[in-house]
Design brief:
It comes from Cardamine amara subsp. amara. InterPro entries: C2_dom (IPR000008), C2_domain_sf (IPR035892), PI-PLC_fam (IPR001192), PLC-like_Pdiesterase_TIM-brl (IPR017946), PLipase_C_Pinositol-sp_Y (IPR001711). GO terms for molecular function: phosphatidylinositol-4,5-bisphosphate phospholipase C activity. Its cofactor is Ca(2+). With 170 residues, this protein is mainly β. The chain has a single domain, classed as Immunoglobulin-like (Sandwich). It is built from three helices and eight strands; from the N terminus they run ααβαβββββββ.
Length: 170
C-alpha cells in the first residue's frame, strides 16, 4: 500500500496531506476519519482482461500440469467507511483471462483512498498463489480504459504483465 501511496508523486517519499486535514474548523473541530461522512463520489472499476501473462509470469510459479485459474481482487483502502474488497470469478485454465466484470465503490474521502488490485491463482485445496498486485491513489486515476501494470511482492514491475481496466467516476 505504501508503494501505491507514493506512486502519485513519482516515488519521492513525501505526500502532502489534503487541506481538509490541515485546517481547523470554526468551532475548533478537526478531521475525524471515524466520523459518519457523506459519500462524495462513486468509483466504477471494470476489469476486462489480463495480457502478457503467458510470457511474464514464470511458469514454475504455478501448477506444472495445468494452466492457472486466475481471479482478481479489487478493493479500496482508506478511511474505515471506504474500505471494501471484491473479487472476479476465476477463469479456468487460461494464460489470458477475460473477466469483463464491473465493481462500484462509494467513497467518502477519495483524497485518502487507494485502489488495490491483486491477482491470484485459485489453488484448491491449498492456499491460492499470489501472482501480482498494484496499488493506485484514487485521486491520481485517469478516466477511461487503461493498461495497468502488475508488481511482485517487493514492488518490482513484472515485465509485460498488465490488466486492461476502465475507471469512471459517477
Amino acid at each position: 500500500m505504501m508503494h501505491g501511496m507514493f506512486r502519485g508523486n513519482g516515488g519521492c517519499g513525501y505526500v502532502k496531506k489534503p487541506d481538509f486535514m490541515m485546517n481547523i474548523g470554526p468551532s475548533g473541530e478537526v478531521f475525524d476519519p471515524k466520523a459518519k461522512l457523506p459519500i462524495k463520489t462513486t468509483l466504477k472499476v471494470k476489469v476486462y482482461m489480463g495480457r502478457g501473462w503467458d510470457s511474464g509470469f514464470h511458469r514454475t510459479c504455478f501448477n506444472t500440469w495445468s494452466s492457472p485459474n486466475f481471479y482478481t481482487r479489487v478493493g479500496i483502502t482508506g478511511v474505515r467507511a471506504d474500505k471494501l474488497m471484491k473479487k472476479t470469478k476465476k477463469e479456468d485454465n487460461t494464460w489470458e483471462p477475460f473477466w469483463d466484470e464491473e465493481f462500484e465503490f462509494q467513497l467518502t474521502v477519495p483524497e485518502l483512498a487507494l485502489l488495490r488490485v491483486e491477482v491470484h491463482d485459485y489453488n484448491m485445496p491449498e492456499k491460492d498463489d499470489f501472482s501480482g498486485q498494484t496499488c493506485l491513489p484514487v485521486a491520481e486515476l485517469r478516466l477511461g480504459i487503461r493498461s495497468v501494470p502488475l508488481y511482485d511482492r517487493k514492488g518490482e514491475r513484472i515485465v509485460s504483465v498488465t490488466l486492461l481496466m476502465r475507471f469512471q467516476f459517477v
